[in-house]
């Protein structure tokens, strides 16, 4: 659906951030983008909705180059939530903040209201709809910012570091919501450093380093590849580490395991269960 | 906003940059006062001709002329409106003189702001007995101007991603579009100010009543020279202005 073709980008023409990135994103995919600080992850997602335009290469949406589309046009199809929620909240109630995006995209009052309510419920914000966003805590503001874009249900949703400042339950709620959107055929792209969040929820992982994609494939194989982990300054997931330890004692345990179910199955087998 | 460039410090290796900020401040004030004492084309042109070499000595002529070009629309406005609305006997010459005076004032202060680093400025203020907290607040304010600019761009990006069309629609709509930019900008600034204050306090800001400084400004011979010349010019001009009527050639006006 979206195809980035050999995208190069340098800030002010001087500070190179992307050095030839190609990425295909299809309908209904759940993709995590991981990588060290300064690898170009945020720069990459800003190319999806036209906030940044490639110096070289193309961004193709449904077979059409997007270079002539405005950001507002692209925002209908591609939602982007930035890292800092304070950069987008400006209205005096949480509800109006969420309605704002929906009204921009031309939803009817009834439909907008309905979507707004649903999103607030899903993100655990239902009790706060009349509050001013500026009186909320950091984590709550983050969720309001998420809600304002999630409510518009774009075909592609990209989130930059959505799990920062969220406790385990909120992360779970977020994951559940992303999963539901995904079931409706929406693609979800998340930029994050939260490896456990990626393993549990994202089947595909794109690893970036130094403005390039160094690995792109099934999450469990990307995140158990030592070379990739090294280049992206990622710590090995705990499950992979556990699998490696088990492998040293029981050679029949594969070294690369990232899913808890797989590990469970192997352990049960070793213990002679069925 | 390119005309503001002329008030922005640029790192250069020039005679003017090396002067003590206090000497420069005095020089700038004298130049401005002299410019304010005349409202005729010829004397202001003479002042102007003294200012240009100073800017040249600060190696900033190109920057200065770029700023003046940026300002030219405003200057033309001033000329047109004053000419049309003035009650003076010779409105065009009068508004021309006003404009020249504005340029001279801007230039004389730009000599100061172009060549004084914000740190030097706060040190100069402290050594002029301004309380450290105030001097510090001022240099912080200057330090955060570019940060605020970056923040504004980030906010614009975030709002565009929500479907706000910043550069579309009629004038009214565009003005209304400022709200989603300005409100977060103010909030973010206040939040930042509070958190900077907290982090400064937790690092012991204000723990010692008396401070010592690593770099202390010192008046050199050249600084004394600048101050002396400025003072002589000031005394001379004030004397002339009060006791000597201007010769008629100096009061020359355009025939229209």
Break the fold down into its secondary structure elements and pairings:
The complex is a heterodimer of chains A (274) and B (256).
Chain A: E1 2-11, E2 15-25, E3 30-35, H1 41-48, E4 56-61, E5 64-65, H2 71-77, E6 78-81, H3 94-104, H4 109-122, H5 138-150, E7 156-160, H6 168-183, E8 187-191, H7 195-201, E9 204-209, E10 212-218, H8 219-222, H9 226-231, H10 238-249, H11 260-270
Parallel strand pairs in A: 3-8, 3-9, 6-7, 7-8
Antiparallel strand pairs in A: 1-2, 1-4, 4-5, 9-10
Helix pairs in contact in A: 3-4, 3-5
Chain B: H1 15-18, H2 21-36, H3 41-57, H4 61-85, H5 91-115, H6 118-127, H7 132-143, H8 145-160, H9 171-176, H10 179-202, H11 221-243
What does this structure look like?
The complex is a heterodimer of chains A (274) and B (256). Chain A is of the alpha/beta class. Chain A has one domain (2-236): 3-Layer(aba) Sandwich (Rossmann fold), CATH 3.40.50. Chain A is built from eleven helices and ten strands. Chain A has a six-stranded mixed sheet with strand order 6-7-8-3-9-10, sandwiched between helices. In chain A, strands 2-1-4-5 form a four-stranded antiparallel sheet, covered by helices on one side. In chain A, helix 3 (94-104) crosses helix 4 (109-122) and helix 3 runs parallel beside helix 5. With 256 residues, chain B is mainly α. Chain B has two domains: 2-116 and 219-251, no CATH class; 131-202, no CATH class. In chain B, helix 2 packs antiparallel against helix 5, helix 4 (61-85) packs antiparallel against helix 5 and helix 6 (118-127) runs antiparallel to helix 7 (132-143). Chain B starts with 14 loop residues before the first helix and ends in a 13-residue tail after the last helix. Chains A and B meet through helix 2, strand 6 and helix 3 of A and helix 8 and helix 10 of B.
